[in-house]
């Protein structure tokens, strides 16, 4: 169910390497209670829960860092920059909110209170356009809720896409669909299950972390010893002891928690012996990855004179009736930067370009000239494009349930033979696609392992 916030000129829709160790080899001399594949939020959450229960755990991470799609760094722009998750969605119910608030040096700001600027055809939209967009966005979400609520039970609801449930009737309707689809779910509304969206928590309370949301989460979770640059090639679970083969060697364990994105399971980047059951492989295939990318631009200090009224201000720009709607955050936390967002099919079409970094940065810069004029080019310093689709360990931003596949999340969460366990945002319903989903799923998988070991 969803709580709606008004859209107007005044509102907007919505490192830690010292903690990880990269070994020269993986030792197979001992039998661990659990091997965790992936040191993202789900994997770390599971590891901490298992260690509190005095269980032996080994975390394997293919990257040269921990965090997975939760990644804050300050090298690119000299300020904390979240490549992935950056919002505490439904912050009043989000279990990560209090965890971050309790961390020294971290603060939380109300993202939902910031301005929204809507520009159509090179000029600011009329007050009527703001009102119509607010109404269109509210109506789209309400139609989802009402359609499911009308069914006698959720199992009686005949799931369909958001677009089929509420086809856009005009330009503002299409912008509302872009907000709910590509710019939120990372997918076109014609490919998003209405039931999946209905099940997600949405209170309308949106907060951000100036020091980096991913950094705050990882600090709250605490130090973790993960074996980095360790690629899991094969999981052999046909014997009483599970054998995990990596590029660094072999491990013996009683159980495995797999936290990799659904894309990697669907592509069978890890070989399972014997194969995973058909129902598990089908669940991964039925939850393909959506794509939402950031194109972040940094400017000289004089940029603030062009955007003197903007600070963590939302901006939606559509150049003409048929063009892609861009979303930007202007001067996030007062920095002379903009963070642009593109999702869905548009993001996919750009991701594979040979010179994708240059192309996307140029597109973002060109898009902003409709508001700031050509002077903005003289102030440009550098840019960064996340391009999550080309990340070999992500292959997208987060999972999406197509129409009729909302229940695939429950299948993704189910253990296999009480020996292989699964965690990650794709395995939950109420917090799917989000960091709290990863966190809670890791704890759930750890409980399942502990129960099995006991």
TrEMBL record:
Residues 123-150 form a coiled coil. GO terms for biological process: auxin biosynthetic process. It catalyses: L-tryptophan + O2 = indole-3-acetamide + CO2 + H2O. Pathway: Plant hormone metabolism; auxin biosynthesis. Its EC number is 1.13.12.3. GO terms for molecular function: tryptophan 2-monooxygenase activity. It comes from the Bacteria. Pfam families: Amino_oxidase. InterPro entries: Amino_oxidase, FAD/NAD-bd_sf, Flavin_monoamine_oxidase. Keywords: Auxin biosynthesis, Coiled coil. Residues 41-450 form the Amine oxidase domain. Belongs to the tryptophan 2-monooxygenase family. This is Tryptophan 2-monooxygenase. It comes from Aestuariispira insulae.
């Amino acid at each position: 169910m969803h709580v709606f916030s008004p859209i107007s000129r005044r509102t907007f829709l919505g490192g830690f390497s010292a903690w990880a160790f990269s070994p020269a080899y993986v030792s197979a001399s001992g039998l661990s209670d659990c091997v965790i594949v992936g040191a993202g939020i789900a994997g770390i959450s599971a590891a901490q829960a298992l260690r509190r229960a005095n269980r032996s755990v080994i975390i394997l991470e293919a990257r040269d860092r921990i965090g997975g799609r939760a990644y804050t760094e300050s090298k690119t722009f000299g300020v904390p920059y979240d490549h992935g998750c950056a919002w505490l969605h439904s912050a009043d119910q989000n279990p990560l909110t209090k965890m971050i608030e309790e961390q020294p040096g971290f603060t939380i700001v109300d993202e939902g209170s910031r301005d929204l600027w809507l520009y159509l055809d090179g000029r600011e939209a009329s007050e009527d356009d703001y009102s119509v967009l607010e109404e269109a966005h509210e109506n789209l979400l309400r139609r989802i809720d009402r359609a499911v609520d009308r069914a006698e039970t959720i199992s009686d609801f005949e799931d369909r896409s958001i677009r089929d449930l509420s086809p856009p009737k005009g330009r503002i309707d299409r912008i509302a669909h872009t907000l709910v689809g590509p710019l939120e779910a990372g997918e076109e509304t014609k490919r998003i299950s209405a039931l999946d969206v209905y099940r997600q928590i949405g209170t309308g309370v949106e907060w951000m972390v100036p020091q980096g949301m991913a950094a705050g989460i990882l600090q709250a979770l605490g130090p973790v010893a993960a074996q980095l640059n360790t690629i899991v090639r094969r999981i052999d679970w046909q014997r009483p002891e599970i054998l995990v083969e990596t590029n660094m060697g072999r491990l013996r364990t009683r159980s495995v928690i797999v936290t990799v994105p659904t894309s990697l399971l669907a592509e069978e980047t890890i070989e399972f012996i014997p194969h995973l059951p058909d129902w598990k492989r089908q669940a991964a295939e039925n939850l393909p990855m959506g794509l939402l990318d950031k194109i972040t631009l940094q400017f000289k200090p004089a940029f603030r004179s062009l955007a003197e009224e903007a600070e963590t201000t939302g901006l939606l720009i559509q150049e003409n009736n048929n063009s892609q709607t861009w979303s930007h955050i202007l001067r996030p936390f007062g920095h002379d930067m903009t963070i642009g967002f593109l999702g869905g099919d548009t993001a996919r079409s750009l991701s594979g370009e040979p010179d994708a970094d240059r192309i996307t940065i140029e597109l973002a810069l060109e898009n902003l000239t409709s508001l700031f004029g050509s002077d903005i080019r003289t102030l440009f310093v550098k840019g960064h494009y996340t391009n999550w689709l080309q990340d070999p360990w992500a292959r997208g931003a987060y999972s999406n349930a197509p129409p009729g596949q909302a229940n695939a999340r429950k299948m993704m969460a189910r253990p296999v033979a009480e020996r292989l366990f699964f965690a990650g945002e794709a395995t939950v319903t109420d917090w799917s696609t989000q960091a709290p989903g990863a966190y809670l799923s890791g704890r759930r998988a750890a409980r399942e392992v502990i129960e099995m070991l006991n």
